[in-house]
Structures are given as C-alpha cells and as structure tokens.
Design a protein that fits this description.
alpha+beta, six-stranded antiparallel beta sheet, 23 strands, 25% strand, disordered N terminus, disordered C terminus
Length: 471
C-alpha cells in the first residue's frame, strides 16, 4: 500500500538584483524579496556591494523575520542581490541559505540561484578532484566554483564558459564589486526579467517584484542571455552560439507565479482564466455553483464559471495568516493543518451541486480532505476539476515534486484517483487544452509526459543518492 502526502509541489526560489548607486538598494531589494516571498519561505538573504567589498546578511525564515530596519539600514552600497529559498528535505540549513559570497583571487563575488542543475554531482566530483573545497550541499556552490575557476580575464567571459558546463535549469544574479549580472539557462526554464528604476536597472524572478518597487518592466531575459548592468548602463550577449528550443516551466503559469506577474509575455492570471475556459470546453458539468481552491485555482474557476454561466462562490475560505506550513509529527496533526489553511463555507455550499477547481494534484491527501470538507458542509455533489494534466513524473529542474512512486497519478488512473479523493467526478485539463490556454507550445511539460528537455543522469534521478540540493 502506497501512502500519499502533501498535494502541492514545493516552492522554488526567488532572486532579485538591482544597480542603483543613488538609491537605497538594500531596502529596494528587501521590498523585491517581499514580493517574491511566495517562491520560498525557508530562508532569505541580501548581499550589497559598495564598489570595493560585498556585505551579506541572511537567515532562516521569512523576509520579515530575517531583516529588521536596523539590519537593512546597515547594508550600504550601490548594488545588491537577494534570494528567498525553498529547499529539498534535509538541506534546510543556514549554510545553504543564499546569496553565496566568496573571496577569491580577483576579489569578491556573490551569487543567487533559482533552479536545479542536472549534472551537479558530476561537476562537484570533477571540481573536488581539482582541489575545490565545498562548504554547502547546494548546486549553487558548484556554479560559483566554476566561475572562479574560469576567472582569468573578464568575469563576463568566465560566465560564458561556466554556462557551457552547466546542464539544467537556472536563473542567476551575480554581484561583483562593480557589476551586476543576470543569466538564464538556454531553455529558459526558470524565469528572469529586467526592469528600469529611473535611469538604473534591476532583475527579478517575476515582474510583480518590479511593480512593488515602482520599476518599469522592460523585458524578459532571453534564454541563454547574459545581462550586464554597470555604471555605463545595460548591455547583454548571448552565451550560446546554438539556440535550443525554449521550454519555460508550465507550472509557473499553473501554480507558482503570482497572478499579477507576466512571464515570457504571458500574463499569469489571464493564462489561468483561459485554463478554466478550456476546462469548460472539455468537461461541461451541470452544476449549481463553481468554487475554487484558493488562491491559484481562483482564476481558472472564474473562467469556467463565466464560460458556462454558472454562479461562482466562495465555498472555501482561506486563512491568510497561517504562513508557512510545517510537516507535523502525526497524520492527525497534518489533517488539522488542512483545516487551519482552508475552511468550507456551509452557507454557500449547502444543497448545491458543486464544481471545485484546483490547479494540481500531486500526492492526493489534501484533495481528499477538501472534498470531504465540502461534502460535510452540505454539498450534494462535488465534481473536482484540475487546471493541469496529471503530474506523473518528478521535476529535476527546481521544483520538488517528490519521488515518482509517491505521485498519485503515477500509481493510479483517473478513476482510481477519483475514488481515492472521494469526488463524484474528476477531470484534468488535457495537455492540448493547457497549450491552447497558454497560446504557446514552448513550455516544459516533463512532469506530465516525462519528455525532459534536458537529459537527466541516472545518478541524479535517484533521490536517495542526490546529495546536492536544489536552491
């Protein structure tokens, strides 16, 4: 008998960078990280350069827990980078928090990374044989070791050579004493965008962080591009002579990104609403009410309800003061955790045929509790619709979707999942419907179909052997 746990994939990481000598760069980075808090809640950090040296403050917890006004005021400089982090199990340590800062022959450097390398173990072994010393268990330290190894001439050239060695997904912000760099992997799996603050520039995982600090969105960093920001302004170069197919992460639009963000020219909220319209085309249900599992299911539920002319209601109320969800020591306490986050609104649900829309089912337990909760509140029927295809394969590019055997869609067919969660019917959006909703086929669907755009070694496929943790 297999056992399923949390329904949702774990958050990724968020990065932010700014070059603005005439402004309070640490405070602007703090605000930028606040806007990206949804991408990671385990640790946060900010590194600031004054042109001669780099100062760092990082800690475990939320941005508001790690930074006080006093700490931010003491981080003086003309440019900064920041990071919020989620890690895989076992690597939630202060030493693994980012940014990473190193002293080396050419001076100082700081790096913050969102993503996951698929050849991290091989690179770490090779670097170790050549005398590299590691102080963390994260693949980001592999990247910074490669950069310093190649740093004979310009840092920009070293970054190009480093990108040649890296396989996997990455969005990087790199801080030298006098320059800020932004890099994106050649497939563009992890997001990174550029903003303008007056006549200066900034970088962020999502455009919502630019809005927060009053920056103007300029464009996304292109796959394989290296962006350089310094006193002369912004310039860039393509790190790869051969352009590969773009494969932006589909889960950014389904679940991870904030609804008010735009990634690779696609608005997240509009994309989710279109997913609901596609669900209405694929699976129209005669119902009295459409509800969402908030918040990432809300836009899809509104799209579905509008398309079919069914009333939308707040059937599930979210407790917005819960904060991070900790793994509880017993199954009973984990179930209480679901009720702490969401509660059924009986006055809306009683005697209704309900369509409930969520963004995904990864392992199954939370979904079953939500169906049970809605039925106990008086719903006559609960039809569960999902705005992603079944998650049947693990992600190796920076999302913690667990081992393949713990993914419920890998173990059960749709009817088996329906019975497991107790819904009257269950429908997932098709891969074709998802692509129609996004209006593009340049997205990574590997967690749905197992077609990985970047090869993954057998060593890195084994979670038991995987000792280099994603950022």
């Amino acid at each position: 008998m297999f056992e399923f746990g949390e329904d949702k994939p774990k958050e990724e990481c968020g990065v932010f960078g700014i070059y603005a000598p005439d402004q309070e760069v640490a405070r602007l980075t703090y605000y930028g990280l606040y806007a990206l808090q949804h991408r990671g809640q385990e640790s946060a950090g900010i590194a600031v350069s004054n042109g001669r040296s780099i100062s760092l403050h990082k800690g475990m917890g939320l941005v508001s827990e790690v930074f006080s006004d006093r700490v931010v005021d003491h981080l003086k400089g003309k440019m900064a980078i920041g990071h919020v982090r989620y890690s895989t199990t076992g690597s939630s340590l202060l030493g693994n928090a980012q940014p990473l800062v190193v002293h080396y022959q050419k001076g100082m450097m700081a790096l913050a990374h969102n993503g996951n390398l698929t050849n991290a173990l091989e690179l770490r072994e090779e670097l170790g044989k050549n005398g590299a010393v590691f102080q963390t268990t994260i693949d980001s330290e592999v990247i910074i070791n490669l950069i310093t190894r190649y740093r004979r001439d310009s840092l920009e050239d070293a970054l190009v050579k480093t990108m040649m060695d890296l396989k996997g997904a990455y969005a990087l912000v790199v801080l030298a004493e006098d320059k800020l760099f932004g890099l994106r992997d050649p497939h563009g799996i992890r997001p990174l965008c550029i903003g303008r603050v007056g006549d200066r520039y900034c970088l962020a995982s999502e455009s919502c962080a630019l809005d927060t600090i009053g920056a103007e969105f300029m464009r996304d960093v292109e796959p394989g591009e290296i962006v350089v920001i310094d006193e002369e302004g912004l310039h860039s170069r393509q790190g790869f002579s051969k352009i590969v197919d773009r494969s932006s992460c589909a889960f950014e639009f389904i679940y991870f990104a904030r609804p008010d963000s735009t990634i690779d020219k696609l608005n997240v909220s509009a994309s989710r609403r279109q997913m609901g319209i596609e669900l209405a085309r694929e699976c129209p249900i005669v119902a009295d009410l459409v509800i969402a599992v908030p918040d990432s299911g809300t836009a899809s539920a509104l799209g579905y309800a509008t398309a079919l002319g069914i009333p939308f209601g707040e059937g599930l109320i979210k407790n917005r003061y819960v904060g991070r969800t900790f793994i509880q020591p017993t199954q009973a306490m984990r179930e209480v955790g679901v009720r702490l986050k969401l509660n059924a609104n009986a006055s809306v649900l009683k005697d209704k045929r309900v369509v409930m829309i969520d963004d995904s089912i990864v392992r199954g337990t939370t979904s079953s509790k939500l169906v049970e909760m809605v039925k106990k509140a008086g719903a006559k029927e609960v039809h569960f619709l999902i705005s992603s295809p079944p998650v049947s394969y693990p992600c190796y590019y920076g999302i913690d979707t667990a081992e393949r055997e713990k993914l419920i869609a890998n173990q059960l067919d749709v009817e088996g999942i329906r019975k497991y969660i107790g819904a009257d019917s269950l429908h997932y959006i098709s891969q074709e419907g998802l692509l129609r909703a996004l209006g593009t086929n340049t997205v990574c669907l590997a967690c749905f179909n197992g077609m990985y755009p970047i090869p993954v070694s057998n060593l890195n496929r084994s979670k038991n052997d995987f000792e280099i943790y994603q950022c």
